[in-house]
Amino acid sequence: MNWYISLNSNIEGPYTTEQIKEFYKTGKINNDTYVLKEGTTDWKSFGMTPEFQTKQQNVNQQKIQNINPSNVVDEEGLCPTCGYFAGSLLACPRCGASVNKKISLVLVKKISVIGSIIGIILLWYAAYLKQPITVNIGDIDEKMNGAFVRIEGKIIAYEENKEKNSLRMKIDDGTGIINISAFNKLDALKKIFKDRMPGIGDKVEIVGSINETQKFGISMFLSVPERLKIIEKFDLKEVELGKLTRKNVGDIVKIVAVVSSYDKRTTRKGTVLHSYVLRDKTGKIGLTLFDKAIANLPEETKSLFNVGNKLELIIRIGEYRGELQAEIVDFSKIVKVGEENVEEMKKEEGKEEESTEKEESKKEEPKEEIKENTVGNLKKSDVGKTYKFKLEVITLSKKSKGTLLKLKDENGDEIEMMVWDSLSNRISNFDKLKSGSQIEGKFEVSEYRNKLQLKIKEAEDLKIIKK
Amino acid sequence: MPLVIILYVLLGTVVAGLLCLIPSLHIYNVAGIVLLIWFKVRDVIPYYVIAPLFMSMIVAYSFLNNIPMTFFAAADESAGASILPSVDMVKNGKGRDASILSGLGSLAGIIILIIFTPFFYFIWTYVTAVISPHLHWLLGIIMVFYIMSEWPKGAGRGKTPWEKFKDSWRNVFAGMVTFTLSAIVGLIVTTKPLTPPELSYQSIMPIFLGFFAFPSIIQTLISDSKIPHKQYKSKYINAGYSDFGVAALPGIIGGLIASYMPAVTAGIGAIFASHMTNHRNLQQASFEKPTQPGTVVKLYTPEIYYQQERVFLIGGGVTKLLYYVGAFLLLFVLTDLTPNGMGRGGLNVLLKPVFSPEKGDYFIMLATIIFSGSISMLALIWFTDITIKLLPKINIKKIYIVIIFVLLLIVYFMGGGLTGIFIAAVTTCIGCIPVFYNCRRSHCMAVLLVPIALNMAGYSDAIARILKLI
Amino acid sequence: MKGFTHFMSGIAAATFIPEVVRMSTSSRLDTVEGAASSFIILLAGAFGILPDTMDFKLGQFFSIAEYEIDPDPRNPDPQAMTDIFAKAVNEAGDTGKDVRVQLFPIQLGASLWRQYNIIFEPDEVIIQFNEIVKTSQVPIPNTAPPPERRVGRTKLRYELKARTNEICWMNRAVRWLRHKIKGEDPPPGPVKPSTLDILSGTQFAFHKESDGKIYFNWLPWHRTWSHSYVLGFFLSIPIYIIAYLLNLHHWWLYGLVAYLGFFVHLTEDMTGHIGGALFWPFHKPRSEGLELFKASDPRTNFSIDYAAMVLIIYNLDRFSTKKIPLLQTWYGHIVFLLLFLVIPLFIYFKVVAKIKEKLHSAKKIGLEEPDGTGEAIVD
Predict the structure, then answer these.
(1) Contact B331/B343 with Cβ under 8 angstroms?
(2) Is the bond preceding residue C51 a cis peptide, omega within 30 degrees?
(3) A445: buried, middle or exposed (CB in 10 Å: 19+, 13-18, 0-12)?
(4) Distance of alpha carbon A11 from the chain centroid
(5) Which single residue of A281, C83, C86, C136 could bond B308 by disulfide (Cβ 3.0 to 4.6 Å)?
C-alpha cells in the first residue's frame, strides 16, 4: 500500500505504510498531516485514517462528523482536503492542497492577467500610430463632444495672460470659429516657439479634444503645447484705407488712421453702439463698438478713441450693409501715434475726394464678369472661382450650425451647398425652401473631403426663384 | 407646458424603468441611445423637456436597477470573491426584502435631496467654491486612501515572513495591479482617444462596459450557482426607523462625495462613508452569562450588528440616488458663486452640448424627482413581485448570453466600431482581475481618477511626452 | 483610532501651514515646477496612515509565533487548541523566555466564518466554539457545534495578567500623565474574553514577570517599531532628498509635512490603551496609552473626522480661496468655528450619541434573526 503526504504545501510520496508510521514516530508528520491512499482521491488527516489508528480511535472516528451544516456551508468553495474556504484560489490557503477548479475559471483567471498586459501594449501602440483626422469647425456637432481631431485655421483673436500663465485664441477655418484655451501652458508654449509665438492672422494647426457646451459653444483645451503648430506665419501689412475693397473682407491688416468722428446711438432693442469713423489720407472706414466691449476696456484704452487721435491698429476687414467695417482684433495692440486736426483733415480730403471722384467717373472700374456654369462642367481647377448657377433643391437637411442643400442643375448633375445660419438668417424666404425649390445666384466653388461643393459668401448672392 | 413636462417625465420613467431591468445595461448607455434619438427628432420635441426627461430616466434607474442587481448576480462560492448582502438575502429567500429595502433607501434619498435644498444653495456652494482649486489633490487623497485602506484578506499562514506575506497580500496585490492597469488605460485613452470623432460623445462607454458589465456576465456564465426559486413575500419588510436613521448618515456622506468629486462613484463614496461612520468591533461587545449548557460565555451581538445588512442596503440606496440624481440636480444650483451649476457625472457630460440650466429650473427638477421617484418606487415593488414569480422560468445564463450580444452591438454601433470592441476587450480582461482575484472592483475607476487628477494638476503634457502620444 | 481618522487628522494638520495650502492650489505660478501643482498634502495623509499600514501589511509577518493554532475547519478540536495554548503559557513560565501564539480564523465560505472565543481564567484557558457568523459578525442560528465539541479547557501553571508591573521610565511618565488627567487607575479586572471570527487571526505574547505571573500581550507586533517618532523622522528623510533633487519649491516643506502626518498619528494613538514604542530604536518597549478613548469608539472617530473636514475647509479658505464671507472679518472665525464645529459636535455628543446608545442597549434579540412572516411565493 502506498501513500502520499501533504507537507508544507508540497505533495510527497509515494511512501509505504511503514515509512508513514516511521515519519509519525520521528515527528516529521503528526495527527493533522493529510495523507492520501494511492488510487483514491480522499485526503484524510493522519489521525483520522483508519489504517494508522488503533481500534479505539477507529470507533471514536465513526462518531465524529463534519460539524458544518450543509444548508449553510457550500462545499463547492471548500478545500476537499481540509474543508477551509478556498474560493477561487487554485491551492488551499490552509493546507496547500490543490483545489480542482473548473477549467473555465482557471482560463478566465489566466486570460485576464495576460490579456490585460498584452491588451494595454496593443492599446498604447494603436494610440501611438493614430493620426487624428482634420475636421471643419462647422461640421462639429454634439456627437463629437470629446472627439480627438485636428483643426486648421487662422487665429482671429489672441490673448495672453501672464498672471495666470494662460493663453486664449479663436481660430476660424472658414466654416466656423473655435475657442482654444491653454491654462498654465503659456511658459511651456514660449519655450517651444521662442520668439515665433503664434499671433493673429497666423494659420495654425491644432490637435486636441473638442469640448462642446450649449452655453459656451465649441472649444478645445490645449493641454499639450506640442500639439499647436504654425503652418503659415501671417505677414501683417500696413494698408491705406482708400485701397481697401470688398475683396479684402476677412483680411487682417494694419492701418494708421485718425478717429475723425464719433456717434453714440441706441438701437430699438436698447443696445448702445459707439460708432467711429477712421480716416487716413486715402479713405475712411467705419468702426462700431458695442457698449459692453467698451465697458470692459481699461480707461487708457478707452481714451485712445477720442476724436483727433491718430492710431495704429490691427483690424479685420468686415462688411455691414454693403459698407466696409473695421473690427479690432487686439485692443492691447492699439498705439497712439499722434493727433490731427480733424476739420482741416476733412477739408483737405474733401478737395482730394472731388478730384478723385472726377477721375473715377472717367474711368470705370472694369466689373468682374461672373460667368454662368453648370455643375457637370465643374472641375477641381475651378475651386476658388465664382460662377452663376441655376439650381433646383433636391433635399435640405438641418445641421447644428447651418443647412446642407443637395442641389441639381438642369442636366441633373448634383452638388451640395452648405448655407451657414449666419447667412441663411439674412436670406429672405430661406425658411420656405423645400425640395423642388429653385434658386440662383453667385456661388463659389470649394472642396470638402475631396468632393466639390458650393458656398455663398454673401446673403445677397443667393436668390430664391421658386419656393 | 407643465402637462408636456409631466408626459415626458412619465415617458422617461417608463422607458428607463423597463430598460434598466435588463441586467448589465447602465443608465448612461440608455441615455446615450435616447440622446441619439433626440438628435433626430429635436425639431419635434420642445427644448425644455430635455432635462426633465433625462432626470426621470436616471431616477427610475436608481430604483429599478435594484432588481437585476439583487436577483441576477452570481453567488458562486467557488468562483466568487465576496457575497453582497443582497445576494446573500436572495440565497436565503429574502430577495424581495433586499430589493425593496434598496428602493426605500432611494426614496429616503429623495427626501434628503428635498431637505438639503437650502444646504446646497447656502453651504455647499461655498464648500465647492473653496475646494475647487484643490480638486486635484483631493482626488489624490481619495486614491491614496483607497489604495492604502485595502486590508490583506488572507490570514497570513506560512512558516516564513515571505510565505505569510504572500498569503495575506493576494488581494491587495491584485488591487494594486488593477489600479495600475486601469490608470494606464485611462492615461492612454484620455491623452489620445481612439474612438472615431462622430461617436466620441460615448467614448467612455466601451471602457466601462469592459470594466464592469462584461466581467459580471462572465462570472455568472461560468458560475454553477443557481438563484433559489423560493423567495418569500412577506406582508411587512423587516426594517425600522432606526435603520433609516443609521443608514442616512453614511448614505449622505457617500452620496455627497460621489456627486461632487469627478470620477468618484457611489461605490467609492460608500467606502469612505463607511470608514467614517461604521465602527464595529465585536471585541468591544459584551459577554453575558451562558444560556446553553456546556458553554462558558454567551457573546451578546448588539442590535446594530443585525442591522448591518439592512443599513447596507438602505444606505446603498441613499448613496446611489444621491450620486446619480444628486450629481445631475447640482447642475441646477445656480448662484453667484456657481453660475454654471455644480453638476458632475456622466449625464452632465452627455448633455452639456445640448443643454444648459437656467434659474428656476432647480424646482422643476425637484418636482420631476419626486414624481418620477414615487412612480418608480411603486414600479419597483410591482416588478420585484413579478420577478420572483418568473424566477423559476428564467434561465439567467441564456439571458446573459443574449445581453452580451446586445452590449457588443451597442459597443460596435455607438462605441466606435471595432475600435470600441477592442477597447472593451482590454478593459474586460482588467475588470476580471478584481472579480476573480478578490479585490475591490472600484479600483477600475483609476481609469478616470488618475488622468483627471493629473490633468487638473497640469501634468497632461508631461504624460503625453512620457507615453510618446503627442 | 481608525485609519480614516488618522488620515484625515494628518491632512487637517498639514492645512494649518499657510504655505502648504498655497502650494496646493492649481493656479500657483511662482514656483520652480510652475503651474504643475504640488500634491504635498497627500504626503500628510499617506504618512498619517503609514504606521498602521506598516504594521498590518508588513510588520505582522515578521512576528513568527512559536506556536500556531490553526483549527481544522471540519472538525475543530477545542481541547487540542487549549492544550497548545497552555503549553505556550507554561513554556514562557518555565523558561522565562517570551513565547508567542498565533491563532487563525476558520473561513467556511466567502462570507462565513466559524466564531470562537478564548476565555482567560486566572489559572485556566478555555476555548469555546460558537455559531458560524457572516462577515458582518452576525451569527447564523442553529449552527453551533454539538455540546461535546464546543468547549476545551486546560489548566495553566502560571497566572495570566493584563497589566504589566515592569514599567520603564516612559511608562512611568505616561502613567503619571494619565493619573493626572483621569485619576488613579481602577484595580485590574479579569482579562476579557477574546473573540476570533472574521478575516485575520490574532497573536498573543506571554512574558513572565518578576512576580511569577505571565503578562499577556495582545498583538505584540502592533505599535512597536512602526509607531516611533524617531522612525518617522528617518522615513521623512527620503522625502526631503527627493524634493531637493527634483528642485521643488520649498523642498524642505515636503519632508516636514510627511513627518507631521506621522507625528499626528502617533500622538492620537497615545490617547488609547496601547501607546507605542515612541523612541524606537533607542527605547524599544511599547508604552501604555493615556486611556482617554477607545481606539474604535465611534463617537471619537466620527467627531475627529468631522472636525478634520471642517478645519480643512476653514484653512483652505483663509489661506487660498477666500470665498467664505464670514472668514473675511476677525470675529467671523469664531462664529464659523462655533457654528460649524462646536455646535454640531455638541449636538452629536448629546443627542445623536444618546440615540445610538439606546440602540445598543435595546431589547436583546438573542440568536434568532428577525424575519418577516409570510409564505414562499414559489416552492
Answers:
(1) yes
(2) no
(3) buried
(4) 61
(5) C136
Say what the pLDDT of residue B274 is.
86
Phi and psi (nearest 5°) for C239?
-65, -45
CA atoms within 13 A on the CB side of A92: 31
Q: Which residues pair with C208 in a beta bridge?
A: C214
Q: Residue B210: is it exposed, middle or buried by C-beta count within 10 angstroms (0-12/13-18/19+)?
A: buried
Q: What is the largest CA-CA distance in chain C?
A: 76
Searching chain B, which residue's CA lies closest to the CA of residue C303? B276
Render the burial of C266-305: b for 16+ CB within 10 Å, e for the rest.
bebbbbbebbbbbebeeeeebbbbbbebbbebbbbbbbbb
Q: What single-letter DSSP state applies at residue A77?
A: G
For the record, the C-alpha cell of B235 comes out as 406582508
Among C29, C73, C75, the residue with its CB nearest the CB of A165 is: C29
**DSSP-derived 3-state class of residue B335:** coil
Beta strands in C21-73 (DSSP E): 67-69
- Alpha carbon of B81: minimum distance to chain C alpha carbons (Å): 6
Closest CA to B209 of B439, B436, B422: B422
Closest of B438, A100, A96, A10 to residue C199, by C-alpha: B438
SS3 content of chain B, % helix, strand, coil (to 5): 75, 0, 25
pTM of the model as a whole: 0.81
- Residue C247 and residue C252: Cα distance in Å, rounded? 10
C53 touches chain B (CB under 8 A): yes
Alpha carbons A462 and A456: distance in angstroms, whole number: 7
- The Cα–Cα gap between C356 and B267 comes to 25
A300-321 pLDDT tens trace: 888 888 888 999 998 888 888 7
Whether the per-residue pLDDT at C367 is higher than 50: the answer is no
165-204 in chain A: CB under 8 A from chain C: 165, 183-185, 187-188
Per-residue pLDDT tens digits for A32-54: 677 888 887 667 778 767 778 65
Distance in angstroms (rounded) separating the CA atoms of residues A462 and A430: 9
Which candidate from A67, A74, A77 shows the least CB-CB separation from C145?
A67
Do the strands A451-455 and A414-420 form a parallel or antiparallel pair, or are they unpaired?
A: parallel
Distance CA B165, CA B155 (A): 9
| Whether A246 contacts A319, CB under 8 Å | yes
CA C169 from chain center: how many Å?
A: 24
Is B285:C349 a contact under the CB 8 Å cutoff? no
Reading the block at residue B341, the C-alpha cell is 451649476
CB contact under 8 A, B79 and A146: no
Cβ pair A189, A195 in contact under 8 A: no
Neighbouring C-beta atoms of residue B74, cutoff 10 Å: 23
Q: State the Cα–Cα distance between residues C375 and B232, nearest whole angstrom.
A: 6
Distance of CA A17 to the CA centre of its chain: 76
In one-letter notation, the amino acid at residue A246 is: R
d(CA A229, CA A206): 6
Question: Is the pLDDT at A370 greater than 90, yes or no?
Answer: no
Residue A156, C-alpha cell as written in the block: 482671429
Assess B469–A contact: CB distance below 8 Å, yes or no. yes
Question: How many other β-carbons are positioned within 10 Å of the β-carbon of residue C195?
Answer: 24
B191, B337, C11, C168, C224 from C279: Cα distances, Å: 48, 49, 24, 13, 10
With the C-alpha atoms ordered A198, A201, A207, A208, is the resulting torsion angle positive or negative?
positive
Model pLDDT, residue B460: 87
The residue among A106, A118, A143 with the most chain B CBs within 10 A of its CB, best to mutate, is A143
Amino acid at position A192, single letter: I
Split at pLDDT 50, 70, 90, the class of C375 is very low
Using DSSP's 3-state secondary structure scheme, residue B200 falls into helix
State the CB neighbour count (10 A cutoff) for residue C335.
12
Whole-angstrom distance, CA of residue C127 vs CA of residue C154: 9
